[in-house]
Design brief:
- The structure is a single chain.
- The chain is elongated.
- Helix content is 52%, strand content 6%.
- The strands form four sheets. Strands 4-6-7 form a three-stranded antiparallel β-sheet. A two-stranded parallel ribbon has the order 1-2. A two-stranded antiparallel ribbon has the order 3-5.
- The longest helix has 35 residues, at 426-460.
- It contains 18 helices and nine strands.
- The protein has helices at 15-22, 34-52, 80-87, 98-112, 121-132, 151-162, 176-182, 194-199, 203-234, 243-247, 252-264, 281-284, 286-308, 333-361, 388-403, 426-460, 471-481, 494-505; strands at residues 4-7, 26-29, 92-95, 136-137, 140-142, 166-169, 172-175, 316-318, 323-325.
């Protein structure tokens, strides 16, 4: 199938554009835009004339950061950007995966192609080639405080363009120079300002925020379905989700979560009367918990996409107007705050589903289901323990997610000789958020597997038939059972859980749209 093309430049990019490039569903390109080309060229020429005339220009003929008072003689100016890239090659930790790396490359292309960063058109085209040819810099996750932007991780992109350090290409780790040569790409000799422009921005944290947002968007809908399946399995009180009830507290996201749950509880001929007048909070208050995330996501999208479409290096160059604008647009405060908020809302879903699974496995709360959801016959019940260990694991994952909700943005550290004396920590917040999403997805699939076990136990007790279930819930039951059978005799469930996680990653299960 032919891939669509997404053009850089001054268009208003959406999170979905970054995802399309990161997931290989689209190709990047520079637009046929004479006005943009003129702005880019004039910015480069404005810088060249400036340093040739002896005008003081930050990061072009001065040192960086606290070294701004250091004057760089004309004979060394063209070496300065290469030195900047090289001394920032000190990242540690795990390497970003392919999807995250493509998102980072895309975010940096978006920012630089606005035409206010003083980089050549040739550099922008080479960024496009890195994306389209999958020449992926091996970027360590750790080393950014989020101001002056993501300096160290972004230096790995600059180094790859220079033909330095290693990249992933064709599924193998290769020297960047060899990978560029493989595709007939000449290494770039960075010009004044280009090293700084590539590195001095928020593109790592913003790219990760795009990925986190997308996962959270799917998770809110999945959480609503899991809740409904838990209610079915435990014969809960469906009146807790009545439309009229939620009109009295009209948070839109909360109303939406209740509506999704209500649709999945349209089980014909199952409930004669609720088992309890009021269910535990993990069932009764689920729309209120999921709804917090649902109501926050639209605001978060606005903040992420504003950052994504910004020129966020320093200084900014307007070659058309002849302006050099010194400022702090590399500061990732908005992304840091969004990620700190998102990770809290998501971790609450981990806590929710951990409690739902606890209700399912406990004979005192599951309304007549076997202890630990064991499907073993009576003669084998003494040696079978069903979901006992899964629930313990779920609590461990939930606890780890909750532990990581400490806001990163308040842990600013004064760095770089106190020039960077108040920093955003946005990249750490984004990485924390992705880890919390990973843990919460683990909790979610465990609760889902438990809820499906409970539903099938009701079927075996002749209280419920698959034909009575809403079509969407029945389809999900069949899809999961094709790979993860009903648990009769105890078995290792790791493989089932890992397969279910791949289905979340692929968004394989059809859910109601927002």
């Amino acid at each position: 199938m032919r891939k669509k093309t997404i053009f850089a430049g001054r268009k208003n990019w959406k999170i979905e554009d970054v995802l399309a490039l990161a997931e290989g569903r689209a190709l990047a390109a520079m637009p046929d835009d004479p006005g943009l080309r003129e702005a880019v060229d004039k910015g480069v020429e404005f810088i060249r004339r400036g340093w040739k005339s002896g005008r003081q220009l930050y990061g072009i003929n001065t040192g960086y950061g606290a070294s701004v008072e250091r004057f760089v003689p004309e004979s060394l100016i063209e070496e300065l950007p290469r030195q900047l890239v090289r001394y920032h090659g000190c990242g540690l930790g795990r390497i970003f995966d392919e999807k995250a790396t493509l998102a980072i490359l895309s975010a940096r292309l978006i920012s630089l192609s606005k035409g206010y960063s003083g980089v050549r058109w040739e550099l922008l085209e080479k960024l496009v080639l890195l994306i389209n040819k999958r020449i992926l810099p091996l970027i360590p996750e750790e080393g950014s405080v989020g101001a002056s932007g993501d300096l160290t991780p972004l230096s790995y992109i600059a180094a790859a363009l220079m033909g330095e350090r290693d990249v992933s290409c064709g599924g193998k780790r290769r020297p960047a120079a060899a990978a560029l040569k493989r595709y007939g790409i000449k290494p770039l000799k960075l010009m004044p300002k280009e090293g700084l422009a590539l590195m001095n921005g928020t593109s790592v944290m913003t790219a990760l925020a795009c990925l986190a947002y997308d996962r959270a968007l799917y998770l809110q809908r999945l959480s609503s379905r899991i809740t409904a399946m838990c209610v079915i399995a435990m014969k809960g009180n469906i009146s807790h989700y009545d439309e009229e009830l939620f009109e009295r507290k009209p948070h839109p996201g909360q109303q939406q979560a209740a509506a999704w749950i209500r649709r999945d509880l349209d089980v014909r001929g199952y409930w004669r009367a609720p088992a309890r007048l009021q269910d535990s909070y993990a069932l009764r208050c689920a729309p209120h918990i999921i709804g917090v995330l649902s109501d926050a996501l639209p605001w978060m999208r606005t903040q992420i996409e504003t950052e994504l479409n910004s020129s966020n290096d320093n200084p900014l160059i307007d070659g058309v107007k002849g302006l050099v604008m010194h400022g702090g647009h590399f500061y990732g405060g908005h992304i840091a705050f969004v990620m700190d908020c998102l990770k809290t809302a998501v971790a609450n879903l981990a806590d929710l589903h951990d409690r739902q699974l606890e209700l399912l496995v406990d004979k005192r709360t599951n309304n007549g289901l076997p202890a630990n959801l064991s499907g073993a016959p009576a003669a084998r019940a003494a040696v079978n323990h069903g979901f006992k260990a899964v629930q313990i694991g779920t609590s461990a994952w939930a606890a780890e997610a909750l532990k990581l909700t400490m806001p990163a943005s308040v842990f600013s550290r004064s760095t770089e000789c106190h020039n960077q004396d108040k920093v955003s920590m946005g990249t750490i917040a984004a990485r924390d958020c992705l880890r919390i999403l990973e843990l919460t997805e683990q909790v979610a699939v465990a609760a889902m597997l438990g809820a499906l076990q409970g539903i099938e136990l009701r079927m075996k007790q002749k209280e419920l038939k698959e034909s009575m279930l809403p079509a969407e819930v029945a389809a999900l039951l069949r899809a999961v059972r094709a790979k993860a059978p009903f648990v009769c005799e105890d078995r290792a469930l790791e493989g089932d859980l890992r397969w279910m996680l791949t289905q979340i990653s692929a968004k394989a299960w059809k859910l109601y749209e927002c």
